[in-house]
Amino acid sequence: MTAGAGRLRVGVVGLGRLGKRHAENLAYRVPGASLVAACSPVEEERAWAREALPAPRLYDDYAALLADREVDAVWLVTPSSLHAQQIVDALRAGKHVFCEKPLSLDLAECERVLAEAERYPHLVATIGFMRRFDPSYRDAFDKVQAGKIGRPFLVRSQTTDMNDTEGFFVRFAATSGGIFLDCTVHDIDVARWLLGRPRAKRVFAAGAVALHEGLREFDDVDNGVAICEFEDGKLAMFYASRTQAHGNDTHSEVIGTAGGLTIGRNPRANRVEIYDATGVRNECTPSFFDRFEEAFLYEARAFVEAVGGGAQAGATLGDALEATRIGVAMRESLVWGEAVDL
Amino acid sequence: MTAGAGRLRVGVVGLGRLGKRHAENLAYRVPGASLVAACSPVEEERAWAREALPAPRLYDDYAALLADREVDAVWLVTPSSLHAQQIVDALRAGKHVFCEKPLSLDLAECERVLAEAERYPHLVATIGFMRRFDPSYRDAFDKVQAGKIGRPFLVRSQTTDMNDTEGFFVRFAATSGGIFLDCTVHDIDVARWLLGRPRAKRVFAAGAVALHEGLREFDDVDNGVAICEFEDGKLAMFYASRTQAHGNDTHSEVIGTAGGLTIGRNPRANRVEIYDATGVRNECTPSFFDRFEEAFLYEARAFVEAVGGGAQAGATLGDALEATRIGVAMRESLVWGEAVDL
Amino acid sequence: MTAGAGRLRVGVVGLGRLGKRHAENLAYRVPGASLVAACSPVEEERAWAREALPAPRLYDDYAALLADREVDAVWLVTPSSLHAQQIVDALRAGKHVFCEKPLSLDLAECERVLAEAERYPHLVATIGFMRRFDPSYRDAFDKVQAGKIGRPFLVRSQTTDMNDTEGFFVRFAATSGGIFLDCTVHDIDVARWLLGRPRAKRVFAAGAVALHEGLREFDDVDNGVAICEFEDGKLAMFYASRTQAHGNDTHSEVIGTAGGLTIGRNPRANRVEIYDATGVRNECTPSFFDRFEEAFLYEARAFVEAVGGGAQAGATLGDALEATRIGVAMRESLVWGEAVDL
Amino acid sequence: MTAGAGRLRVGVVGLGRLGKRHAENLAYRVPGASLVAACSPVEEERAWAREALPAPRLYDDYAALLADREVDAVWLVTPSSLHAQQIVDALRAGKHVFCEKPLSLDLAECERVLAEAERYPHLVATIGFMRRFDPSYRDAFDKVQAGKIGRPFLVRSQTTDMNDTEGFFVRFAATSGGIFLDCTVHDIDVARWLLGRPRAKRVFAAGAVALHEGLREFDDVDNGVAICEFEDGKLAMFYASRTQAHGNDTHSEVIGTAGGLTIGRNPRANRVEIYDATGVRNECTPSFFDRFEEAFLYEARAFVEAVGGGAQAGATLGDALEATRIGVAMRESLVWGEAVDL
């Protein structure tokens, strides 16, 4: 760790809803980390930081934060279109980088970041695929590694959100990259992680507009399905939806030659079951925020440990590139109505 | 089997809702049985039998049915207060007897029937504790026998009905024997069956009137709880309710030194799960009729096999006596507010 | 109904494992039906029929059974390759026909049967997609029809069998049509049934050989995944497997704009849960025979009712043709590595 | 809050396994609290504190800690027999007090503490029944308060631990107060909390020694069951066990006139389900430590908020006295074999 007193000095960049959560975790709940700086162009967000965080230095300009010599690592929770350049700038400024997914929606940009990162092997750079840090996903990964299901050969995984009747994501459709690059990238990363990091060979995708007609003009859908074949013969199936009635239902399954594992197949909100005239039921996690609260925390802890010399626990830039590569191919397949070879 | 052509010739007595089900099972779904006669004092019920059954001889008088020499076995689905004498009469007429539970609410009467039955060892007489024939209860029993949970020492069991807003059972309270003799006898029999037929040593019972105030004048409750200690140190806990919102929730649990089994802990109506704005749910079995449809059928098949020389699979008269003995003690405990030693 | 005494006189053809089950259902558990004849070229099977069935006329030759004027309907449980011609012959002989799936693996043959059947509108001809008669599938269908999940637009469905270490299906691979035509046809039919009988527009399929290398020479796989796009914009995803460790896990899900339904997501063997040092668990249905025992019975009852003038409840020949058409396209997609337009 | 800089300055007393967890929570995860002191007579535990905590002042003597004017509140995680006097001493020293359960196993001592506490109404004193702070228990409580199950009238609750083959608790039996005072007090508190804090009227208890024969000499059991009747006619049933094979299975149920709630009925370790040759299963929480990790944290936060003027969220001394009163009566009932009136 480069920090004097043994603590990694972090500057968080971007203080939207998710940025706030990262900032609070880093400030109060990550041993070995000190949140020393925060950066946002939005005055309200800086005002929040002044109140809620332990007196970080506040910047409205990313370059200024990078110039802060008391910052060892930057934590990027910024719009996706900025990620690639901000990572490069951070590395050049000698900072470790954590960046929210995706690395970039553009493959060439992804490759440019990887090339740059190779020049700074002493710096940690990771992309925030937080599911790898959810305790249940982690338990499943460990069981797969331990051979509990034999040889894994198929992953089924889904990211489905509760329907947003306001359709925020429709307005966002022009820049989101579409449902596969926005949602399914998480599942792609989960699949590759559980299957041993295979490279994709071919994808096919299809979709439906169930509720949000406005997506059609962007060649996007509110429900998408996809199949991915990997070079080693393994397979993955994906489902993404923006229109669920019951909550954020993110679940995954890995199937092997001696059994299978599901992770989160019933998106229980907690341990309560209700029985009444409607039957026996449990409520569901309303959003990914609720579902992955712990994962965001453990992700931050793992990053700090990695900087301190621990194992790289999260997704590498290479993993992020492969997720984008597959997501882009799915988007093409959806638009063209054909399988896409990679 | 005493029947000429190898089939047991059965006469069903009582054609109420449950009697009709037994009659249909015996007529169409029990290999080795022929339903040759039916008896009911109610003309409408005999009319139903004329339509729905394969031409049985119809009687409005039990004595007349007993005089029918072409009847090998009687199947009593009559009011509880008639059971004891009808069993005795059937045995004296040389018929095998199946009788719905309970044997009798009166212990002396139970003993009188047992004494009489001892004089007819060649005749099968069994009481219809149908849970012993439910495939799931049977699977649990087999697993216990096979030592899968070590030594079983505790049973928890419940019979809870969906609330009947018409409160039929309130009008029935004067003669039902109360909630323990009416409902919990099933659980008592299950407990003794799973625990190896121990004799009871002490019981304690308590109750609440949740909705049906009319029960108070009969010293009865609409929700009852009880503990039973057995002579061999084993234990049972019971719950009975007439006021459930979700359905008939009959479930049991047997706990041993190496594990436990639950039977029916979620009273799923079927294999469908619904997810919508209320969460993830399943509907429930509305009544014991729905829950134990298979059990009534397998019970009849087992009786026919027992007459044919197979193992006695159901509850003996002795089991039924012990269930009544325990149920009566629970009722006393409820009224007196004290533990009752047996 | 054409039968004199009001009962449909049925002749069952084929007395293998599944044929025996159909025969017993028709003989003993289907009101309105009489099993009057049975046909098998295998002497052992006819011997079984002599013992187990109520004295049907026995034939070793299909033509002889068709010539039996006391037979109103034939029940075909014969090898798939015989189905098409046997149906045609039965219709020409004036018999109603129930035929196990598939109608045929060859599209031209399917169409020939449909053309022939149009000449006999007074005769019932149905293909045995029994899931439509499973009580849970039926409940889901009714809920969809009642609008409980809004507008359905996506079905996910799977047929997965417990691994057969003897690999019977490998020897069968040359004639089975491959995993999609052998297993997924059921899911295709379920999807179309739940989604309102749409026509397919495009399919994509992929597969893996997890355990049974011998399948490769037949261009077959032991695990297959597929996506089907329908003309009305609806979607289906399928999974088929021959290598599960836990049992026959046949389950389906239908997703609508206001919620979703799963059918059989946990393939519970019964209502027992076991808790011990391994956790809390339930055992699973070992085979489709155990899972769909009720469905086979209700299917037979529905056929008899349909002959008697009731609604056509099962899959029509047209449904069966469409299932084959989709299954054939999946097989092509698997072999070619491309999406296939229909 | 009495602390100068707005933070409650806490001294933790007792640094065993549970004390360590409390200390870490207070040191790092409770906004508004500072862990400024720790007390243990055990040098190893103080050494641990030196390493793991942010430089608290360390004491080996409780009186010395009480004399520390920079301590606003003491956090007692000491042997049960010391609780009562330590609470009194803390109050007299002007400190707020959090004390692990139980208040005392002796009723007279409980009452003495309550009398003393009445003299210090400005000081917060609470007993650590942490289940009230578990998110699922809290959700159930809120639903009951919101009338979701109508009027609650029955609680069933259990505390069952994985079997400790070393039988630590046997050696502990002489001072533990027995299974009801050691384990069931939690369930008693849950029952009263969910039912509106009724007073007990009568209890009955029974037990079995399933595995640990050494308990007999202490009139204790390794499995106990009990019924409690409350003055307002409500009921509770309890089960406690030291011999479970599957883990710590702490679960509760509250039943009302319009439905019921279960909390933790399947003690899932996480969101993973495993399917393999044994069926479909989930692993279980091994110990109360794993099950109630969050509850211990939220409990500490609530205490700090209560000192700061927030609502008293936890169990009062009066609640703790009533739990002891009921637990003592259960123990008497177990020994005497009679119901005990309170």
Question: How are the SSEs ordered, and which strands pair?
Answer:
Four copies of one chain form a homotetramer.
Chain A: E1 8-13, H1 17-28, E2 33-39, H2 43-52, E3 57-59, H3 62-66, E4 73-76, H4 83-92, E5 96-100, H5 107-118, E6 125-128, H6 135-145, E7 152-162, H7 168-171, H8 173-176, H9 179-195, E8 200-208, E9 223-230, E10 235-244, E11 251-256, E12 259-263, E13 272-276, E14 279-282, H10 288-291, H11 293-307, H12 317-336, E15 340-341
Parallel strand pairs in A: 1-2, 1-4, 2-3, 4-5, 5-6, 7-10
Antiparallel strand pairs in A: 7-11, 8-9, 8-15, 9-10, 11-12, 13-14
Keyword list:
2 domains, 342 residues, seven-stranded mixed sheet, alpha/beta, Dihydrodipicolinate Reductase, domain 2, homotetramer
Shape of chain A: globular
Structural class of chain A: alpha/beta
Question: How many helical stretches of chain A?
Answer: 12
Main-sheet strand order of chain A equals 12-11-7-10-9-8-15
Low-confidence residue ranges of chain A: none
- Quaternary state of the chains: homotetramer
> Residue-averaged pLDDT of chain A, rounded?
94
CATH architecture of the largest domain in chain A: 2-Layer Sandwich
CATH superfamily of the largest domain in chain A: Dihydrodipicolinate Reductase, domain 2
- The total count of strands of chain A amounts to 15
N-to-C span of chain A: 39 Å
Strand content of chain A: 25-35%
Highest CATH level, the class of the largest domain in chain A: Alpha Beta
Total domains of chain A, how many?
2
